[in-house]
Amino acid sequence: MRPGMMALAENLPRYTWEDYRLWKGRWELIEGVPYAMAPLPSFEHQIVSGRIHVELVRALEGCPHCVALLPVDWKIDEHTVVQPDNLVVCGKLPPNPPLEKAPILIFEVLSPSTILKDRNLKFRLHERAGVKYLVLVDPARSEAEIFELKEGRYALPEKVRNEKVRFDLGVCEMEFDFGKIFPGGG
Q: Is residue 72 part of a domain?
């Protein structure tokens, strides 16, 4: 970063959860910096995200400890609140959002307007927060990359298209059928 840019960044306000709660519209707050959510996702994004949710609900039917959620405020700390596209949480949920513990599994559906944030900023954020599995789904390529946290870092991804993949959620296991989430699949 150039010297002038660093001084500029240091002088920007840092926002908190209390500020975030008052904002209108859809936002994420990452390390005190607000990010406006892109306009509502494309139909393709919504279809894939909806199919992920349906498949997660199906895959978790035998697990009384874990639940599939659609975007919800996940408050990582006072300066960071994000809304993953799809997530799995194990254990007791609070009565109302925000979620304050790390999900065990997150699916982010990539789109042209969010791909850099999802692959870089949120990738590192999920890694630091201890999310065991991060799945980056690329509808344009009908492909997903599965990252598993090992020794505090995400291992090289497993790339899948139509495979069934088992996820060890600790309290249970689930089998997710990637062949059912892309248009034209399953």
A: yes
Q: What integer pLDDT is reported at residue 11 of this predicted model?
A: 75
Number of domains in the chain: 1
From CA 183, how far away is CA 186, in angstroms rounded? 9
Q: How many C-beta neighbours within 10 Å does residue 182 have?
A: 21
For residue 34, give both structure tokens: 């607000």
Residue 148 lies in a domain: yes
**Terminal alpha carbon distance of the chain:** 47
Structural domain range at position 62: 41-180
What CATH number corresponds to the domain at position 142?
3.90.1570.10
Q: Has this prediction a pTM greater than 0.85?
A: yes
Using 50, 70 and 90 to split pLDDT, how confident is the model at 47?
very high
What residue has token string 């509502």? Answer: 40
Establish how many alpha carbons lie within 13 A of residue 161's alpha carbon, considering only the half-sphere containing its beta carbon. Answer: 5
Residue 185 lies in a domain: no
Residue 83's nearest CA partner among 43, 23, 143, 138 is 23
**Binning pLDDT at 50, 70 and 90, where does residue 41 land?**
confident
